[in-house]
Amino acid sequence: MRQALQYPWTDLDVDRISAPAVSVRIDVGQARTEVPEHQHRKGQLVFALAGGVTCRVPSGLWMVPPHCAVWIPGSLPHSNIATANARLFFVYLEPGAAELPDQCCTLSISPLLRELIIELADREPAHEVDELLIKVLLAQLPLMPVQQLHLPVSAEPRLATIANALAANPADRATVGVWARRVAMSESSLSRLVVQETGLSFGRWRQQLHLMVAIRELSDGATVQQVSADLGYASVASFISMFKKALGKPPAKYLSSVAHKSG
C-alpha cells in the first residue's frame, strides 16, 4: 500500500482489505502519540524501524524497540503509544494466514523480513509479485526469535493502581511494604497477590517495568545517564548492572545488537 499515513489515522479500515497481508508505512510527528484502545479482526504486527512503540493489551504491556515488532492477535483490544518521530510499519494479517501465537509477543525482525515489510508498504496492491512477497513474509514470520520485552499486568484493582502509579512515576523506589500500606494490604498478602497475578515477585515485576521504560526512552534518544536518573537509580553503574543482568548486555550494546541482527 503506497502511502505514509500520519499516525493516528481515521480513514483506513484494514478489515475491509481482502489480501492475506497488508503493510502500511506510518510517520509519527514531533510529539509522542497515543491511540486509544481499539480492535480489529485482522492480526497486527507493529514494526519499529526507528523510535519505539509500547502496546497495551488486557494482560500486559509489550515493548517495540527499533528493529523489533510486536504481534497482536486479531480481535484483541489494544492501545499503542509511539515515541516522537518514530518510523513504523503496521502489517495486518488475515486470521490464520501465518503460524503465529494466539497471544502477544515481541519478535526480532531479520533483514529479509524488514525488507519485505518495507517493499510491500511501498507497492500498489494487486501486483502478481506481491503474492510471492506475501508468501515469503508469512513463512518467515514464525521463524523470528522472541524478545522478553513484556510486562504482565492485571485487572485486579490494587495491582492496577500500583502499575499505573509506577508507570507515571517509575522513579518511585517505595518498598513492597510501603506499597502494601498504600493499598490497604499486608506486605505478605501483596507479595502473594503480585506473584499470583503476574508470575513475578514484586521486585522482579518493578524491574521489568524499569526495563520497558529504559528501552523506550533509550530508543527515543535519551542518554543512559538521563534514564538512570529518571528511574531513580543511585548511580549509572547500578542501572547498567541491573540492565545487563536482566538482558545479558549493557544498554548501548543491547540496542546495537538488536539493530545489528536486523540490519
UniProtKB/TrEMBL annotation:
The lineage of its organism: Bacteria, Pseudomonadati, Pseudomonadota, Alphaproteobacteria, Hyphomicrobiales. Residues 160-257 form the HTH araC/xylS-type domain. This is AraC family transcriptional regulator. GO terms for molecular function: DNA-binding transcription factor activity; sequence-specific DNA binding. PROSITE patterns: HTH_ARAC_FAMILY_2. Keywords: DNA-binding, Repressor, Transcription, Transcription regulation. It holds the Pfam family AraC_binding. It comes from Devosia insulae DS-56. It comes from the Bacteria.
